[in-house]
Specification:
The protein is an all-alpha fold. It has a domain of 41 residues.
Length: 66
């Protein structure tokens, strides 16, 4: 667990925001505050279809939790 904790601490400088809702995420994207982030697959579809946001869903080669 110590190694996991250290790895997360090493990544923390790359985190610039935390979001609490789909609306938060959409607003940060529109405000150009997000370049890359995690998002729910259904939300990506809604953001594309309903809001016309320039988003896409990518599943890493390594896989993803589901």
């Amino acid at each position: 667990m110590d190694a996991v904790e250290q790895s997360l601490r090493d990544l923390l400088p790359n985190v610039v925001a935390f979001w609490r809702s789909e609306d938060d995420w959409n607003r940060m994207l529109v405000a150009d505050e997000i370049d890359l982030g995690t998002y729910w697959s259904g939300s990506v579809g809604r953001a594309e279809r309903q809001l016309g946001l320039p988003v896409s869903l990518v599943v890493p080669e390594e896989g993803a939790s589901g």
